[in-house]
Predict the structure of DNA/RNA polymerase.
Amino acid sequence: MYVACERLRNPSLIGKPVGVQQKGLLATASYEARALGVDKLCSLREAKQRCPSLILVNGEDLTLYRYYSRRVFNLVRSALGTSPVEKLGMDELFCDVTDMVTEHLAELKDTSPHPRGRWFSLAEVDRTTPSDNKGFWYDPSSVCPGYIIPEDIATAAADNGVTPSTEIIAASHLANHIRHLVLSQIGLGSSAGIAYNKTLAKLVGNLHKPHQQTTLTVHPGATDEYISVVRELLDPLDARKLMGFGSKVLHTLRDHVTGSVRPFTTDLAVEDRRSDTPLTVGFLRQHLTKQLFCTLLGMQNGQKLWDLLDGKDEEPVKPSPEFPLTISIEDSFDERRGILDWSGVLREIEILTNSLLRRLEIELVDGGEIEGVRTDPSPSQPPRKWQRYPSQIRLTIRGGHSREIAYNANRESRSAALPVPVFDLDVPRIERSQALIRQPLSALAKQILDKGVESKITEKYEISIINIAVTHLQITPPEKAINAYFSSETIIGESSMNTSHERSAIGVAHINGSKRARPSHASGLDFGMLRELPPDIREDVLREYGIDASELDLEEPPNKQSKSNSVSAANTGPEDIPADSPSERIPEITWNLQNRTPVSPSTSDAETSSSTEEIETGVTECELCGAVIFGWSMDAHKAYHAGS
DNA sequence: CTGGGGTCCT
DNA sequence: AGGACCC
């Protein structure tokens, strides 16, 4: 999916071996790359070794993928009406289409044959009148689009005793239509699995991968036939293919099998355990018991996992909410980047916090909408309004880079209430980030680090991951009102963020305490700060004060500041303007929905283009604020961020 | 040179 | 707060 998204942004990547890189890992690879021997999730070094022609795209910023993920989610949800749609990660959806299929089949009885085939209505009302944008035609004689399990059902349905479920056949046509919809409307291909429960649907969907769909046609109502078909399908598979059989469960089972079963049997399958062969579903079902599962894996979980071995899965499709429950952002550090002193820790936390706040504005603030995807509003739109208010903030730090550390071990987290002033969009994002560091993030970091997650090396902390999350997203605003930044109150000095005055504290700190503060306008506006505002916010502010932007000299000062004047150097780039950050150009991609050709500022090759640009112009982007800065002034720019 | 995210359960 | 699972 990542590669597909990158290809929409840069069509020259189509047809080539492309890998998406996240730090030293190849997060995913195009099918062309896989054909050349590149595995997903292999190290970058290995990938380049195996496939020197591999084109790498950096995928550490997930903005583009989130954008398409949400578009697909919204499109499918809107096509399926009231049917539950559940997101799993960025690129998978579960859809419970039971109701739609049932209603469709009920209608068929009063429908006479039609030359165009059969009409499947997606409309909530008036399901019998064909209308091309509320349903689709399909050919009922094709049985099922794509692959079918059991394989011989299409040719031998009459005499092999296996009868395809009519519901499943209809669902298969529906899935095919949805896939066409996603392809034609958004430009993303997809695979699908159609079955009677989530586990089996997911499983068969993975059998035929690029752009195919696979249907398990048997109905659990036909018990004997269902059991035999499902067992034939599942038994040879690695149990890890079943949702819920993760690494811990399999390790527990393997320990038990090798420890207690091996001595008592010469079973070949058991010998296989010793040589690291996957535990198969059939082996577990035949040699272990439900009781044992419950003992080893817990009552509830053991029962559920045991049932999965027979393809039994009652888990409902849980509709994913419009807004996620948590939003987090993280960065990882290798041994070179990850040895930090206290101020280094704070610097990294500030970078992450600023990115997080930017994300919150993109994802939680109501602006214009493009196909249901929230975007930053245009300046002429009404004031931006938060759609969700996170109430907690959590800092997680993983220390150490030593090889022995288990996958997720050595992580510690602390959380605190999220101060209300963070929602004040009139305050520059960087100010709100810094306020969050002062309270409560630096205290949380101290709690974690002082406890010793780090291996202290001469006042340095060894850190491999920092994650900052906001949680408990609520629909109702926090109790305390959010006043405008440009309040007529004048409060000077430190103030707690927990009183009703505190939101002023951020603004006051800026007006009175910032090195950047310039002489104020009679209206109380600070033009130094005004220049740093995103254009849309700036427009709002000016309108609020009845000032015509043309009266103001908001042009950037000459880009030649010394370090001692780093403040102005910080203004050389449009630090808070999302559109200048390559990762946030998404809303600018325009679509020709007729022929699905993305129109975007693409060059012949994304990778060479970006690196070439950097070499030729000497321009880099500030990690913290997105400002585009000449290399020679980056030090001054960073000093600006570092300064309080 | 082993991402950057998420959900649910305990 | 941590740990399992998922992508």
Chain A has 22 helices and 23 strands. Residues 20-27, 41, 43-46, 59-62, 65-66, 87-90, 298, 300-301, 318, 320, 324-332, 334, 407, 464-465, 467 of chain A lie near DNA strand B (CB under 10 Å from a C1'). Residues 342-364 of chain A form the longest helix (23 residues). Residues 70-233 of chain A form a domain with the Alpha-Beta Plaits fold (CATH 3.30.70.270).
